[in-house]
Amino acid sequence: MGMVMQMRLLQLVVLFIGVFELNGVVCSYTRPPVRKTIFVPHDDDDSNSPEQVHISQVGQDKMRISWITSNSGPAKVEYGPSPSSIAFSETGSTSSYHYTLYESGEIHDVVIGPLKPNTVYYYRLGDPPSSRTYQLKTPPSQLPIKFAVTGDLGQTEWTKSTLEHIEKSNYDMLLLAGDLAYADMVQELWDSYGRLVEPLASQRPWMVTQGNHEIEKIPIIHSEPFTAFNARWRMPYEESASDSNLYYSFDVAGGVHVIMLGSYTDFEAGSSQYQWLQGDLKKVDRSKTPWVVVLIHAPWYNSNQAHQGEKESVNMKAALEGLLYQARVDFVFAGHVHAYERFTRVYKDKADNCGPVHITIGDGGNREGLATNYIDPKPDISIFTEASFGHGILEVFNASHALWSWHRNDNDEATASDSAWLTTLTSNPACK
Questions:
Q1: What does the pLDDT look like over 27-45, one tens digit per residue?
Q2: Interatomic CA distance for residues 321 and 226, integer angstroms
Q3: How far lies 14's CA from each of 47, 184, 358, in Å?
Q4: Residue range(s) defining the domain that contains residue 88
Q5: Which are the catalytic amino acids?
Q6: What is the pLDDT of residues 73-96, one digit of tens each?
Q7: To 10 degrees, the CA torsion angle through 310, 315, 320, 324?
Q8: Taking every annotated instance into account, which residue ranges of this chain make up the domain Calcineurin-like phosphoesterase (predicted)?
Q9: By CB distance 3.0 to 4.6 Å, which of 157, 234, 270, 278 could disulfide with 35?
Q10: Phi and psi torsions of 284, nearest 5°
Q11: Is 20 within the bounds of a domain?
């Protein structure tokens, strides 16, 4: 832990130098006490055993399995429909990265498939294969589907209870709106986070986008942003013709198109992300894919006093809101603000029956605490606010109806606090 303390000191120096290039308006607000950060060590007797295992969807019938080992070795996965029928195998790639004095372990990525939908598979990692057998479940190929949705997860005792609640929800896929590990340049905390989430992330696909805590850019010392995020959490951006791991899209369950956008990479008109998004939205056939869901990190709509006026929110909204509105996007999930908030359907700051529902879900369990102060009076477009840790569940039942529910962590119990039935905009004649 000596290295961790040294890196914490480095963080303070960097913050003193340049406040990490986040040039938004700073608002003061009081955060209540938080629970302590959890550091999860690598406790296996075999230092080269697989760890930090997580999976993500690639295409309609494949999964990427990622893991880390201390030493180099083949990136190989053996898999099958039962522990006694592991008859298939695929090989992939191995990489690593340096960050100041830190050198990562060997990061293995293997894509397996084709896989049957809504099916449990068993798998082993490495060659020779590890002694442990893992299992994963593929998403369904048609509706219904259940998403767990969270943001600003971190690795505190609140995080632990959030993960326990999500696990009990029997979700099909997790969507994470940025700020994963809160490593903030302490790379050992990325390793700890990978171990903390492995029990869930090794069994269901986790689809993530980046937040400000993933930037990890140090003036002069380390000028490349998102080094650890891009190396450790590789998403299927090639599948959606994106040129960046920071924004991508995918289809799931034969009826939902999910778009992950990057709040901290260029999004202005003419940028690569803007042009990619414009083309991606045009490709969606809403007669076949009735639901479109977008995730960002910095919210475009926010009645909390925290993070008001930041350029990543204001400028991104100005650049991209029109594209999402014209495409009739149904939901926009965001993180960054450490509280929960649900808005009505909205466009250009006014209620609009053809606009998306904006939901802030940046309350997964971060170490910075909750944002408890809201603007008074509350805007009419804001339907529900609560400064509590928790997670959300989006159940898309069919081509027209979905149920959204938010569950707060109340004395370590998942308490349903807000819910709403919603219909897709494709079912509204006025929005066609």
A1: 333 444 567 889 999 876 6
A2: 25
A3: 33, 10, 33
A4: 51-137
A5: 307
A6: 899 999 999 999 999 999 999 999
A7: 40
A8: 145-340
A9: 157
A10: -75, 120
A11: no
